[in-house]
Write a structure and sequence with these properties.
Strand content: 25-35%
CATH class of the largest domain: Alpha Beta
Number of helices: 6
Structural class: alpha+beta
Largest sheet: 9 strands, mixed
Distance between the termini: 19 Å
């Protein structure tokens, strides 16, 4: 196994973060400093970071969580506000959220210690779809508005890719996007004159929110993990 992957699986950091740790000269293998992230290592090798011997790869886990309103989708908060990590059992694992949601948004978010999978799921190249239910303000949503969202919009950080959009009610939209820009769905709706009043992520790739109450979580089973990995292969 490549050293960077070994560190990521041991919960040190994401794959990219592990490469930075290695490049900084903080890693030793068998007591010798190593700066090559591609170095092949095995479970019997003595790998240490900052002098601390790593016990070996952690078991890979992925939690699905229904994030409640007001909870931050970050690993920690300097102001002591509640985060998603406080809602799932960490079992001593280094978990981090995949696919952030604003504090004022709710719905499906993933938490994992698998840095490689997290990077793949959020990388734009793989276009993993994310579906949202948006309650919007303004006049009832028109067919013209739906066409504009489906064709793509010009935002302040560039044009969006076309979205899949369904009107579920006069002011209720279901939107599926493949990008992950900051507050993208809110900005798209605002751009067409419909500010978002409430926003819930209902699906992330092949995973659906259905069955999870706000604040509830479940550990993904093997079949779900395989479908999730298949989405980025």
């Amino acid at each position: 196994m490549r050293l960077a992957k070994f560190l990521a699986h041991a919960g040190v950091a994401s794959r990219r973060g592990a490469e930075e740790v290695i490049a900084a000269g903080r890693v030793t293998v068998g007591g010798h400093p190593v700066t090559d992230p591609a170095l092949d290592v095995g479970e019997s090798d003595r790998v240490a970071v900052d002098g601390r011997l790593l016990p070996g790869p952690e078991p890979r886990v992925v939690y699905a969580l229904n994030k409640p309103l007001g909870v931050l989708s970050t690993a920690r908060d300097t102001h002591g506000r509640r985060t998603v990590l406080e809602l799932v059992p960490d079992e001593g694992l280094r978990l981090y959220p995949v696919g952030r949601l604003d504090a004022d948004s709710t719905g499906l978010i993933l938490l994992t210690n698998d840095g490689e999978l997290a990077n793949l799921l959020t990388h734009p190249r793989f276009e993993v779809p994310k579906t949202y239910l948006a309650e919007v303000g303004g006049a009832p949503v028109t067919d013209r508005t739906l066409r504009r969202l489906r064709e793509g919009l010009e935002l302040d950080d560039g044009p969006t890719a076309p979205a899949r959009v369904r009107r579920l009610g006069p002011r209720t939209l279901e939107l599926t996007i493949h990008e992950g820009r900051n507050r993208q769905v809110r900005r798209m709706c605002e751009a067409v004159g419909h500010p978002v009043i409430a926003l819930t992520r209902t699906a992330f790739g092949p995973l659906a929110l259905a069955g999870l109450a706000p604040g509830s979580w479940r550990l993904l089973d093997q079949a779900e993990l395989e479908r999730l990995r298949a989405a980025v292969l």
